[in-house]
Specification:
The chain has about 50 residues and is α+β, with helices and mostly antiparallel strands. It is built from three helices and two strands; from the N terminus they run αβααβ. A two-stranded parallel sheet has the order 1-2. The chain starts with a helix and ends with a strand. The mean pLDDT is about 85.
């Protein structure tokens, strides 16, 4: 299984994000409204940095 994941990491298991949001920004109403929408093709990555 590890070998399969390693071979397909840039194809089958690849991810792309439309926006990055820090943990601090996650709590802002504007951010909640944005990432709370369930829209196709919209992925948010929550990061630890401010």
């Amino acid at each position: 299984m590890r070998q399969r994941v390693a071979e397909e990491i840039t194809t089958t298991f690849a991810n792309s994000y439309t926006h990055e949001v820090s943990l601090a920004e996650v709590l802002h109403l504007q951010s909640i409204t944005a990432y709370g929408k369930q829209a196709t093709g919209e992925k948010y990555l929550i990061t630890r940095q401010a």
